[in-house]
Amino acid sequence: MLLSAADQPWKDKESAEWNEDDTRQVLSDSPWAKTVIPSVDNSANNGQRRSGGGMGRGGGIGIGGIGIGLPGTGGMGRRGGMGGPAGGGYPSGGQRGGHSSDPIQPPTLKLRWESASPIREAELKARETNAPSIDDAHYAIAVYGVPDRMAQGNPETLARQLKKQATIKRDGKKDLKPSSVEVLQREDGPVVVYLFPRSQEITRQDKRLEFGAQIGRLHLTQFFAVGDMVYKGKIEL
Q1: Residues with Cβ within 8 Å of residue 138, at least 6 apart in sequence
Q2: What's the pLDDT at 102?
Q3: CATH no. for residue 152?
């Protein structure tokens, strides 16, 4: 969704002057915050159910040889307002009427360019005390609304796998790869944070950035327009 300047009144204000609507827009629908519905690879689910009659070994489904689980039960409630109501919108395949061909439906994810100052300031205004901690040496993109069952298991093993499956693409330049990934378990649902080193500088000349990642069976792609990611006359990443 493209917003005109008139639709972004917060851009002409100091963050201290933002009202509740301004703050909400920065965090949910701004150059640094996007809504994404990922594509889902259902083939692995159907194949494993046909061959094993279940969700795979240990109740999880292996991605790239590592069990990034989709266990049949459990986990914390999902982040309210970010991925839909807890337990809804992401049914386990093969549960309705016992049909193994039932596809898994994708959740709605929220992406935030977490290291950008407008996002950090909006989180303070919204009193999001559990916002991810980001250091000055990294660009950070956070994914909210990931189903709990997609972020279970050993956090370090999961983070290593997710690190291999994420990039920021720029036209005519080498892809940026995350230096690390953090999987934060929160009471309101897991948050996946991708950290990219600022030593590989992103500039206005890069124009358009394509963030791509795989989380379990979810494949997501989102474009960011660098020229729009400006606050107080400065590119904020």
Answers
A1: 115, 179, 195, 196, 197, 198
A2: 52
A3: 2.60.40
Q: How far apart are CA 18 and CA 24, in angstroms?
A: 10
Residue in 229, 1, 233 with CA at minimum distance from that of residue 115: 229
Query: Is residue 139 domain-resident?
Result: yes
Number of domains in the chain: 1
First to last CA, the chain: 20
The mean pLDDT of the chain is 77
The answer to whether residue 11 sits within a structural domain is no
Residue with tokens 């969704």: 1
Mean per-residue pLDDT for 215-228? 94
pLDDT tens column, 138-157: 999 999 999 888 878 888 88
Please report, to the nearest 10 degrees, the dihedral formed by the alpha carbons of residues 47, 52, 53, 58 taken in order: -110
**Residue 49 forms part of a structural domain:** no
Contact between 125 and 223 (Cβ < 8 Å): no
Helix (H) / strand (E) containing 25: helix 20-28
- Report the percentage of the chain scoring pLDDT > 90: 55
* C-alpha–C-alpha distance, residues 127 and 161, integer Å: 32
Residue 96, in any domain of the structure: no
Q: Is 41 exposed, middle or buried (0-12, 13-18, 19+ CB in 10 A)?
A: middle
For 107-125, what is each residue's pLDDT tens digit?
999 999 999 999 999 999 9
Which range marks the domain in which residue 151 is found? 29-39+107-235
Quick check: 142 and 112 in contact, CB under 8 A? Answer: yes
